[in-house]
């Protein structure tokens, strides 16, 4: 996997936005997989600026959701559909008709999971998937010990993940749902390009396990080692426990500019 160490989150956002612009310029109807949380916000902000500057046309782009809470109405401000509408669709001027996501309020949640997994395949697959990483190494909501071949399914959140997400619910963990629908690791690995962003010292252990540790269900993100085109973008703090940090800095600094990420 390619590891890029950037000065700060804003620099990482610019780098990923450039990769998306290049993708859209060669494939205007690309399916872009997006994640929620604070880490990818600089990407969406940088991409919005590039689109408004005329660097890319998003009139045909499609957006795919990584995960969703079970039981939150679609119009709840913290449902991921609502969050992505605020942070991605509205700023970029992308209509809801171009959005793919699972139904977290379905009466038959397993059937909704299977339907969404099929929809991703039938749409031609995700071209570039943006990912964050949890302090325990989870991607999407694939918590430790998730199957590395898993498909889109319902998962029970760990207490730590609910604690981490309570900040989005005014700090009240009792408001954080216990269950989510998430793309499985096997589903995520089918995207053509995976871009994982990590910032802050709190993610350093997870990044080190992902990049340099063994492939293990104990660190779900380590499965990204199996993918032919994975890019890990970290700030210095998140990269602080990488033994090969200097190698990664040297490699990217000497990479031809036309290659991008």
UniProtKB/TrEMBL annotation:
Activity regulation: Allosterically activated by N-acetylglucosamine 6-phosphate (GlcNAc6P).
Q: What class of enzyme is it?
A: hydrolase
Q: Which Enzyme Commission number(s) are on file for it? A: 3.5.99.6
Gene3D superfamilies, alphabetized: 3.40.50.1360
* Catalytic machinery residues: 67 (proton acceptor), 136 (for ring-opening step), 138 (proton acceptor), 143 (for ring-opening step)
Sites annotated Part of the allosteric site:
146, 153, 155-156
One GO cellular component term of this record is:
cytoplasm
Pathway it acts in? Amino-sugar metabolism; N-acetylneuraminate degradation; D-fructose 6-phosphate from N-acetylneuraminate: step 5/5
**InterPro entries attached to this UniProt entry:** Glc/Gal-6P_isomerase (IPR006148), Glucosamine6P_isomerase (IPR004547), Glucosamine6P_isomerase_CS (IPR018321), NagB/RpiA_transferase-like (IPR037171)
Q: Where is the signal peptide?
A: none
Among the record's GO biological process terms, what is one? carbohydrate metabolic process
User: Short name of one Pfam family for this protein?
Assistant: Glucosamine_iso
Q: Which GO terms describe its molecular function?
A: glucosamine-6-phosphate deaminase activity; identical protein binding
Domain Glucosamine/galactosamine-6-phosphate isomerase positions: 10-226
> Which family does this protein fall into?
Belongs to the glucosamine/galactosamine-6-phosphate isomerase family. NagB subfamily.
Q: By its UniProt entry, which HAMAP family does this protein fall under?
A: GlcN6P_deamin
State its role: Catalyzes the reversible isomerization-deamination of glucosamine 6-phosphate (GlcN6P) to form fructose 6-phosphate (Fru6P) and ammonium ion.
Which named protein is this? Answer: Glucosamine-6-phosphate deaminase
The gene is: nagB
């Amino acid at each position: 996997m390619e590891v890029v160490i950037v000065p700060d989150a804003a620099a990482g956002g610019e780098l990923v936005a450039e990769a998306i612009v290049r993708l859209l310029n060669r494939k205007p109807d690309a399916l872009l997989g997006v994640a929620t949380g604070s880490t990818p916000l600089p990407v969406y902000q940088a991409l919005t600026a590039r689109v408004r500057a005329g660097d890319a046309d998003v009139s045909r782009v499609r957006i795919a959701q990584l995960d969703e809470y079970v039981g939150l109405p679609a119009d709840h401000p913290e449902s991921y559909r609502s969050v992505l509408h605020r942070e991605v669709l509205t700023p970029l001027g992308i209509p809801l008709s171009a959005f793919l996501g699972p139904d977290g309020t379905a009466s038959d949640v397993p059937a909704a999971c299977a339907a969404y997994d099929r929809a991703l395949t039938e749409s031609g697959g995700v071209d570039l998937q943006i990912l964050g990483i949890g302090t325990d190494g989870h991607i999407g909501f694939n918590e430790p010990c998730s199957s590395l071949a898993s498909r889109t399914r319902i998962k029970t959140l760990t207490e730590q993940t609910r604690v981490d997400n309570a900040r989005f619910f005014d700090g009240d963990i009792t408001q954080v749902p216990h269950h989510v629908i998430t793309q499985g690791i096997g589903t995520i690995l089918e995207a053509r390009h995976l871009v994982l962003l990590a910032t802050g010292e709190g993610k350093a252990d997870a990044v080190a396990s992902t990049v340099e540790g063994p492939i293990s269900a104990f660190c779900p993100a380590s499965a990204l080692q199996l993918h032919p085109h994975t890019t890990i973008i970290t700030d210095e703090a998140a990269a602080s426990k990488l033994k090969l940090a200097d190698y990664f800095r040297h490699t990217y600094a000497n990479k031809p500019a036309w290659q991008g990420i």
